[in-house]
Amino acid sequence: MNSINLIKGDALKALKEFEDGYFDLIFADPPYNLSDKSFQTVKNGKPVACNKGEWDKIDNLFEFNEKWLTECRRILSDTGTIWISGTLHNHPSIGVILKNLEFWIINDIIWFKRNAPPLLSKNRLAPSTELIWLASKSKKYFFNYDLAKEMNEGKQMRNLWEINAQRHKTTHPTEKPEILLQRIILLGSQEGDKVLDPFMGSGTTGVVAKRLNRIFYGIEKDIDYYNIAKNRILNTELETTLFDKKEKKYKNHFIPTIEY
Questions:
Q1: Could you tell me the pTM of the whole model?
Q2: Which of 256, 88, 186 is closest to 195 using CA atoms?
Q3: SS3 for 41?
Q4: CATH code at 226?
């Protein structure tokens, strides 16, 4: 079994190829469907039309979310968890579908970015949070409570996570910081577990999964970001401060490419 398995293609097609209950943890940062002339963002201090790429343009967002979440429920193990990051543009849709598909919603985690960029518009509050749904297929799931408490200086970890926004390592517009994925993967999985990111982007989940000695599967349809992720993951080493290299169970030298 390869520790890193990357798939270049459409997530809706690729997800169907996995057997039931295959993954121990799924992290998903799905498209927000904001790439349109009616939405604006800030570039070099100036408002511009938001255009993240073709991957962020979806005709029916609710239907799209329902399809990929249905497959993720099928391929998630009985004790596994799914973590879904998003903003108000997509998060309500995800929440409704999780309930409709009879997921057990464990937490709604608020990721607070104290250093979030200011808002040029003067008609609303400046966004400084993202939301992360944490769910499972039943009430019996793996969650490393003791480690969460240890990471939080001996106190219960709450669902408000203050993690500053980080300077992007790649050109991907929605790249997540490695420290965020490190917390998620440590709390939701164990060494040797299988981790999936169906919208891999620039490969942050794969970088952290490899570093923490997990088996990683990533799916990405954009060829440029796929190549960025592949090179980034290849250049990542196992975290030797946490794990002894002699006990490393899986090889990391070869990344197979599968296309759908």
A1: 0.85
A2: 186
A3: strand
A4: 3.40.50.150
